[in-house]
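User: Working on a comparison across species. This one is Photosystem reaction center subunit H from Methanoculleus taiwanensis. Can you predict its structure so I can line it up against the others?
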Amino acid sequence: MRNVAEERPSVKGGHAGGLKGGQASLHAEGSFEELSASALQKYLGGMDYPAGKDDLINHAKKNNAPDSVITALQKFSDQQYQSAADVSKEFGKVK
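Assistant: Here's the predicted structure for Photosystem reaction center subunit H from Methanoculleus taiwanensis:
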């Protein structure tokens, strides 16, 4: 049982998107073409919706988003996004 209990914090820690977001960070720091929707969402964690394009960009910058994330957000339509799902949908359009 101890192995299961010991694994849970590491799973939660990796999913929470703290500073240890290794794989997502590596992909996000690449070019815009290599950016995934999940890597983009990592830098929008804790975002309050609805949010405009500038709100998304500012929030991502506060979360130390790499240039590829900012570039993606700058390509978004200037509108109000109601949820993370709306953001992912828009990301699919600009990608």
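For your comparison, note: Residues 2-15 form the longest helix (14 residues).

User: Helpful, thanks.
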